[in-house]
Recover the amino acids of this structure.
């Protein structure tokens, strides 16, 4: 009965007055009690700092903080009822009735502005009036903060909230460094609050997330990197909570992002989780590392193949891990060391606390990728082809392609349909086919090599892709195989 009827009620003083009346002086703690926040607060705030707690409500944060050796704490809220209650309970402390979007404190009067859920309540919805109030709050926080002061914000970091607060303190308001860490949470909770510290600084080109540092002069890129880190954490925790129990037959794809500070938005690891059986004879959980370059093979890239591989391994849950194409990996041991914490988190609850996770791979280990071509194109932005090198005499690199081999399951399905169509036709009949999208030209080359009665026209939007197919994949045109550089819709209309 304490919950609002609609999200917008979080912004109404009347709702909070009613809320605190129903609580009957029982403290309400957003996102954790002081004891859980204490380690992070001690790292960010000094006992001598002048502290302002905005949107304090009737939380015990301010009195607990004061008792812990921080004597200069001022607390404010727009609910007069909440402030009267706190003045009665803690008369020696400073309590003010005030709106955090239009504070009356003098400029640079605080070393720390503390916000535990206040921004989340203010930005209960994502519309223009709400954003306007949030911008007012950000500027007020900036105004009352002294040089080198910090705005400490504990938030659930909904996407639109994170977007606006990072934009404000990395692009609009100058000279802030930003550090984000996760607030300790219950293992049963699917949600994680974040502890964000915005610190006034003479150098604002650095941001941090859980100890990882990203440095860039562009505030937009710094904000993008932080949002990407937070979103990856939120997604993983929600997935982890869903996967606590074994569900026989279930498969999930889980992307793990890079643990480095590089702005790389492609997954470092892709984990295919396969739940095989309630009690595996070889243990609860096992991990298989897919050699680089083989991640598209049947056993690793399809549901059927993954289930076949996992069933043979003999574990309750099997984690098949592919290594990201745009990342580098030092060694098998380094990969295991990096992966192990996340693999433990993906183990089901039925795993024993001291149970170790075995890692498996094939004889070739991690394998290798070699970049043989790298370039850019206006349409697809980046071209990078990787393949294994076959060296002949004299050290010249040659790539060999078997035009009769199809590596991808969807190529095999498309080719099977075309084979079937040809087989149903009368003898010596001729077929004209249109392929939308050339890619590396593998499917087109296969049709040319195996179906002499088919004349194929491939339609490709990007001329750079055609060049790539010819230079690196052995693609060649002739009187049975042609390529047109054109939009696929136009090709269909002209066909």
């Amino acid at each position: 009965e304490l919950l609002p009827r609609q999200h917008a009620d979080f912004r109404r003083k009347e709702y909070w007055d009613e809320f605190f009346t129903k609580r009957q002086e029982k403290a309400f703690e957003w996102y954790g009690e002081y004891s859980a926040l204490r380690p992070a607060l001690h790292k960010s705030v000094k006992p001598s700092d002048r502290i302002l707690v905005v949107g304090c409500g009737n939380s015990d944060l301010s009195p607990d903080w004061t008792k812990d050796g921080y004597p200069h704490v001022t607390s404010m809220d727009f609910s007069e009822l909440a402030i009267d209650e706190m003045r009665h309970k803690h008369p020696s402390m400073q309590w003010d009735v005030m709106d955090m979007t239009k504070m009356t404190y003098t400029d640079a009067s605080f070393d720390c502005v503390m916000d535990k859920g206040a921004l989340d309540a203010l930005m209960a919805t994502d519309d223009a009036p709400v954003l306007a109030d949030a911008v007012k709050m950000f500027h007020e926080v900036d105004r009352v903060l002294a040089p080198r002061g910090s705005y400490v914000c504990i938030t659930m970091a909904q996407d639109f909230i994170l977007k606006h607060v990072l934009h404000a303190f990395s692009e609009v308001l100058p000279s802030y460094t930003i550090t984000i860490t996760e607030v300790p949470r219950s293992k049963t909770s699917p949600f994680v609050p974040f502890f964000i510290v915005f610190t006034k600084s003479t150098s604002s080109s650095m941001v941090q997330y859980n100890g990882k540092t990203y440095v860039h002069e562009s505030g937009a890129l710094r904000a993008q990197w932080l949002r990407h880190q937070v979103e990856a954490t939120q997604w993983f925790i929600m997935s982890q909570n869903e996967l606590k129990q074994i569900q026989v037959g279930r498969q999930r794809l889980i992307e793990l992002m890079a643990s480095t500070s590089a702005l790389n938005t492609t997954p470092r690891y892709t984990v295919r989780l396969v739940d095989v059986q309630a009690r595996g004879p070889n243990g609860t959980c096992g991990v298989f590392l897919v050699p680089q370059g083989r991640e598209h093979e049947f056993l690793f890239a399809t549901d059927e193949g993954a289930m076949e591989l996992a069933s043979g391994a003999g574990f309750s849950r099997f984690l098949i891990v592919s290594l990201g194409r745009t990342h580098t990996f030092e060694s098998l041991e380094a990969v295991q060391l990096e992966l192990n914490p996340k693999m433990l988190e993906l183990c089901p609850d039925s795993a024993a606390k001291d149970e170790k996770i075995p890692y498996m791979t094939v004889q070739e280990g991690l394998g290798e990728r070699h970049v043989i071509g790298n370039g850019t194109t206006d349409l697809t932005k980046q071209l990078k082809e990787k393949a294994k090198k076959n060296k002949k005499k004299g050290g010249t690199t040659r790539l060999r392609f078997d035009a009769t081999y199809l590596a991808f399951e969807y190529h095999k399905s498309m080719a099977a349909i075309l084979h079937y169509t040809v087989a149903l036709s009368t003898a010596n009949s001729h077929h004209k086919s249109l392929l939308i999208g050339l890619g590396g030209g593998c499917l087109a080359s296969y049709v040319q090599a195996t179906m002499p009665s088919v004349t194929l026209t491939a339609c490709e939007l990007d001329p750079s892709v055609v060049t790539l197919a010819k230079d690196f994949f052995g693609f060649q045109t002739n009187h049975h195989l042609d390529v047109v550089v054109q939009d696929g819709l136009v090709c269909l209309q002209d066909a």
